[in-house]
Amino acid sequence: MTVKSPICPERIRKVPGQFSWLDQRLVSEHYIDRCTHGAAALYLFLVTVADARGLSYYADHTLCRRLAMDECDLVRYRQQLIDLGLVAYRKPLCQVLAIEADAPRQTGSLQSLEQVFKRIGEGRT
User: Fold this and answer.
1) pTM for the complete prediction?
2) Are 44 and 83 in contact (CB under 8 A)?
3) pLDDT tens per residue, the chain (125 residues)?
4) Cα torsion for 26, 23, 100, 121, to the nearest 10°?
5) Which letter does DSSP use for residue 6 in this model?
6) What is the CA radius of gyration of the chain?
7) What CATH class does 9-100 carry?
8) CA–CA separation, 86 vs 50, rounded Å?
9) Which sequence spans correspond to the domains of the chain?
10) Planar angle of CA 48, 44, 105, nearest 5 degrees
11) Exposure of 20 in the CB half-sphere (CA atoms within 13 A)
12) Where are the beta strands (DSSP E) in 1-125?
């Protein structure tokens, strides 16, 4: 039997204050805007099958079959969710994370000129 321990115990999800298991900040803080359709489908599946601490241990081949995607796509979509701070992954466990209260907005946010020039210098826009 697989022993499941949270990967990020400090970010165990709780039911949000509003009536929804999916945190409305997925929309209001533009997380969903930064997800591909495949990443959003994977997130929905993981939220649905996760236990009370956000943990699930579906095998990659099962996720691929259930979501009609190949393994390369699954890896790419999972990485998108990791990069957004929505999930943590340590094989064989995936943990759906609580959205951090002070998560920075990356879409439509104001930036100082210093931040803009720094990003240009790093080759990002």
Assistant:
1) 0.68
2) no
3) 777 888 899 888 776 555 456 788 888 899 999 999 999 999 999 998 888 888 999 999 999 999 999 999 999 999 999 999 999 999 999 999 988 876 444 445 556 667 666 667 766 54
4) 0
5) -
6) 16
7) mainly alpha
8) 13
9) 9-100
10) 130
11) 8
12) 55-56, 87-90, 93-96
* Cβ 41 vs Cβ 67: under 8 Å: yes
What own/partner pairs with CB < 8 Å and gap ≥ 24 does 7-13 have?
Answer: 7/88, 7/89, 7/90, 7/93, 7/95, 8/88, 8/95, 8/97, 11/88, 11/95, 11/97, 11/98, 11/100, 12/53, 12/54, 12/98, 13/50, 13/53, 13/54, 13/96, 13/97, 13/98
Output phi, psi for 40, to 5 deg.
Answer: -65, -40
DSSP string, 18-33: SS-SS-THHHHTSTGG
Strand pairing report for 87-90 and 93-96: antiparallel
